[in-house]
Amino acid sequence: MTVRLVPATESDVPLIRDLATRIWHAAYAELLTIEQREYMLQWMYAPHQLAGQIRRGVTYQLALAEGGPVGFLAWERLPATTTAHLHKLYLLPEWHGFGLGQQVLREVCAAAIAAGCLQIELRVNKGNLRAQKAYRRAGFRRVESIVTDIGCGFVMDDFVLRRTLARDASDGGGPASRAH
Q1: Tell me: the pLDDT tens digits for 82-116?
Q2: Measured on CA atoms in the order 4, 74, 52, 153, is the torsion positive or negative?
Q3: Ordered alpha helix ranges (H), the chain
Q4: How many percent of the chain have pLDDT more than 90?
Q5: Smallest Cα–Cα separation from 70: which of 30, 31, 16, 109?
Q6: Integer Rg of the chain from CA
C-alpha cells in the first residue's frame, strides 16, 4: 500500500480540520482530557490559523491512499537555518500499521533535503509512545524535553526529536542518515 502526498491549499482547510478532529480524539483520548483536546483543536486548527500558515509558506500536504484522504502533514524550513520543522503528521487510526507514516516521513525528509535542510525536528507528546517508536524507527533521536504553557491551564508536555538528514536525497532517509 502506498500513500500519495498532494499540496493542500486554503480551500482544503475544512478537510484538514475534519481530519484533525477525527484523528485527535482517537490519538489523544488517553493522553489529554477532552477539554484540552477541544481547546487545542480550536486554537491550532482554527480556519484563520491554518490559512495564515499556508499563506506564510508552511507546506501543508494531504496524504491520499486508495483514492481518499487518510491524513495530513505540515512542515517548513525554519528561517535563517538549515533546520526543517515538522509541525504536524497525522494519519487516521484505521490507516496505522501499513507503513504509510514511514513513507510520509521519507518524503518529508527528501523535500527538506531538497530545500537545503541538514536536519529535521519535531515535537511529540511525552505519553505518545506509539509515535515515539515510529519516529525512532525513522532515525529521530530525543534532544530536549519541554513543557509549554498554552493557556487556560493547559500545557504541552513534549519531547523534541531531531534527525540529521543525508546530503544525498537518494538514500530515502534510511539508517545511514540517522542522527547520532
Answers
A1: 999 999 999 999 999 999 999 999 999 999 999 99
A2: positive
A3: 13-27, 34-44, 47-56, 100-114, 129-137
A4: 91
A5: 16
A6: 16
